[in-house]
Design goal:
12 helices; globular; alpha/beta; two-stranded antiparallel ribbon; about 15% strand; about 375 residues; eight-stranded parallel beta barrel; about 35% helix
């Protein structure tokens, strides 16, 4: 059987295959609450054969949302809306996961289709959505035209670290089996890691050990509130693609520190710290971030997930079989084809007669194939 469809175990959780649905923000929540949109959006990926289905970036504080439409787990009242979703994902054979995050200086932003710029008076007039003050390691705006965030005090840092732990407790109560911390793409944990966004002179900034401290404390806070048998992952930007920013060597050291704090897997992405424009060093092609997963897996000696511009079944199979990563994650490819895992299983000859499909659809498709074969059609 193709290794892409072999089981993979982290701690006490076994994924039926190596395919994950990457967290994809939908901006359809209201006051952080999930609704039927999220149920259908995530449920179709479980039906489609993925081994791990991540819910989107979920704020640990109301002020940590990127937009007014972000999911949240900053209060117990948000738990029940997620329970039926995790139950369905599990019933279909996938593992339900959630990505916890805090937007930091990227908070109070418009949804992408509203401009992906800071919330202002137009949003109040058109959608009754008000802006709020963002916080960050240093008072450096995310990009030109953005307001300067408020520099976090020691008390702010302690509060947010504790909020990650409390959200982890709620995630457990909601039925999730794996947490990923959003520490990439310019969000708060990444802001602490990157010298481009973190210019503090206290114990939270300066050298690499100090800049990693916030991420490590977040990991410890989650592990203190998360079952020992359940895995914890971090999505990291392996490089900022900018001079003076994070390089992959820094991320290897971050991965080692996180491993010591109880983290089990690194989801290897890149970029996002320096505004919306793509850095000149960043060349996008299929699998362009796979080398980061391979390097971190080897040097930090821990599991990795490859993500970004992956869509070809054979490329994904080869990278996992070659030991470059333990799992792969797809996003927009799955939006276009939620059944990508099932189609890939057929292409890699891992499935026969639609045996991996839910019987409610697989039985009919098998019957159709027999009829088409008998008629000599297709």
């Amino acid at each position: 059987m193709a290794i892409l469809f072999s089981p993979f175990t982290l701690r006490g959780i076994t994924f039926k295959n190596r395919i994950a649905v990457s967290p994809m923000s939908q901006y359809r929540a209201k006051n952080g609450h999930a609704n039927s949109w999220h149920a259908v959006h995530l449920g179709r990926f479980a039906i489609g054969g993925a081994g791990l289905v991540y819910a989107e970036a979920t704020a640990v504080e109301a002020e940590g949302r990127r937009t007014h439409g972000d999911l949240g787990l900053w209060q117990d009242a948000q738990i029940d809306d997620l329970k039926s979703i995790t139950e369905f994902i599990g019933q279909e054979g996938a593992i339900p996961g959630i990505q916890l995050g805090h937007a930091g200086r990227k908070a109070s932003e418009r949804r992408p289709w509203h401009g992906e710029t800071p919330v202002d008076h137009e949003d109040l007039a058109e959608r009754n959505e008000v802006p709020w003050t963002a916080i960050a390691p240093s008072p450096i705006p995310y990009a030109e035209g953005w307001p300067a965030p408020m520099e976090m005090s020691e008390t702010d840092i302690e509060r947010v670290v504790a909020a990650f732990g409390e959200s982890a407790r709620r995630a457990h109560e909601a039925g999730f089996k794996i947490i990923e911390v959003y520490a990439a793409h310019g969000f708060l944990v990444h802001q602490f890691l990157s010298p481009i966004a973190n210019q503090r002179r206290d114990r939270w900034g300066g050298n690499g050990e100090n800049r990693r401290r916030f991420a490590v404390e977040v990991a410890k806070s989650i592990r203190a509130n998360w079952p020992e048998a359940y895995p914890l992952a971090f999505r990291l930007s392996a490089t900022d693609w900018l001079d003076g920013g994070i390089e992959v060597e820094d991320t290897v050291e971050t991965a080692k520190a996180l491993k010591a704090a109880g983290v089990d897997m690194i989801d290897c992405s890149s970029g996002g710290i320096g505004g919306k424009d793509r850095p000149r060093r960043m060349v996008i092609e299929q699998g362009f971030q796979v080398p980061f997963a391979e390097r971190i897996r080897a040097d930090a000696e821990m599991a990795t997930m490859a993500v970004g511009f992956l869509w070809d079944a054979n490329v994904c199979e080869d990278l996992v079989s070659a030991g470059k990563a333990d799992m792969i994650a797809l996003a927009r490819e799955l939006l276009a084809d939620p059944n990508w895992p099932l189609h890939t299983a057929k292409e890699l000859e891992a499935d026969e007669n639609h045996g991996m499909w839910p019987i409610e659809s697989g039985w009919w498709l098998m019957k159709r194939d027999r009829l088409l074969s008998k008629l000599g059609v297709r």
